[in-house]
Design a protein that fits this description.
Radius of gyration: 26 Å
CATH class of the largest domain: Alpha Beta
Structural class: alpha+beta
Number of helices: 6
Number of domains: 2
Order of helices and strands: EEHHHHEEEEHEEH
Strand order of the largest sheet: 3-4-5-6-8-7
CATH topology of the largest domain: Yope Regulator, Chain: A
Low-confidence stretches: 1-20, 27-55, 194-203
Length: 203
């Protein structure tokens, strides 16, 4: 039957019987019994086939993220990386950026300190909250240990390389634009561009 609240055709064992009886009724002489079973079978299998095709992924996308892969990607993007084993730090234009990854808990975060909490004004707090909804994209403003930070959080295992590269740029941009546009619009603040990997100029 058609579920109006969900907007799709719900097909179960009872529904298949109903479809079969409708198609083979005397009033529907254009559908012989064999055609009815074929039609019902096609309805039953069509949704899984479409779903399987839509969810197809490339081998690279199926590869889980590890600490070693994360470090390789980070070093391909940034020239001054320090640390190892899930704890890394680098600087962009004098701004510190930290990556913490924990394989056992399947978590990863990228963050950059922005300003001490005690220096915040009411207007800045309201602007940060609004930015988290409108302009911060995948990164967010947050507070930890007495400091405002720009942060990106994601499960480690399902993190994709492009998502991580985007996270680095978003966090840096969100920290840099605090007090102005409050935006993680992925401006290049010294991170290497994919088209220009040798360009290390920092703003």
């Amino acid at each position: 039957m058609f579920d109006e609240s969900q907007g799709f055709l719900r097909v179960g064992s009872g529904s298949l019987s109903t479809i079969n009886s409708l198609l083979t009724s005397p009033a529907m002489t254009l559908f012989p019994r064999t055609a009815a079973f074929v039609t019902a079978g096609l309805i039953a299998i069509s949704v899984p086939l479409v779903t399987t095709t839509a969810c197809a992924q490339t081998p690279d996308q199926l590869q889980p993220m590890t600490l070693s892969r994360l470090e390789q990607i980070l070093e391909s993007e940034v020239s001054n990386v320090e640390g190892d084993n899930g704890q890394w730090r680098f600087s962009v234009g004098g701004r510190s950026v930290v990556i913490l990854a924990d394989a056992s808990n399947d978590r990863m975060r990228v963050f950059s300190p922005v300003v001490p909490v005690e220096e915040l004004t009411r207007q800045q707090v309201q602007a940060m909250l609004a930015a988290n909804f409108h302009t911060a994209l995948d990164a967010r403003y947050a507070v930890t240990e007495g400091a405002v930070v720009a942060v990106y959080l994601h499960p480690l295992g399902t993190l994709q390389a492009d998502n991580f590269r985007s996270a680095l740029r978003q966090v840096v941009s969100l920290a840099e634009t605090f007090g102005t546009s409050y935006s993680s619009n992925e401006l290049n603040f010294g991170l290497r561009q994919r088209q220009q990997p040798s360009d290390l100029e920092q703003i």
